Amino acid sequence: MRIAFLFVVLAGAVYYTSVAFLDLSFLSRTGRLGPGVFPRSVGGAAIAMTIWVIGDALREGRAPDDESSTWGDVLMLMALAVAYAVLLRLFGGLIATVIYLGLTLSLLNRGHHRQNAVLSIAIPGAVYLLFDRLLNANMPPALFDMPF
User: Fold this and answer.
1) What share of the chain is helix, strand, coil (3-state, %, to 5)?
2) Dihedral of the CA atoms 58, 63, 68, 69 (nearest 10)?
3) With b meaning 16 or more CB within 10 Å and e meaning fewer, what string describes 105-115?
């Protein structure tokens, strides 16, 4: 099941990257970096990492996990994704992502509370700095104005 899922992820990454290469230009009309730079980078990294994980999974050759115990986690992750969509509209991109990532990591990375807290704050903070401050691309807005 894991290998099949990874091949589906690989197919999605290949499709995403092909769209980025075929439809988005690398440079703008003024010679500056265009809208295709970031998607191409993300797509290429996704393809490389997925191939790496598939290779590791094939080398391990371990027995399949008990799939009945993972359905609760799948349902919880789906509920968290729906809640994230609601939180995104209420609190905006930064705060909603911190909350979502914190809850998701507490489910997937049990027992590592300090690491989960650091990742839950550092990753959305870095994305906020990259997009909102450096690239001047707005994060999703909140219903009410935030001071930052």
Assistant:
1) 75, 0, 25
2) -90
3) beeeeeeeeee
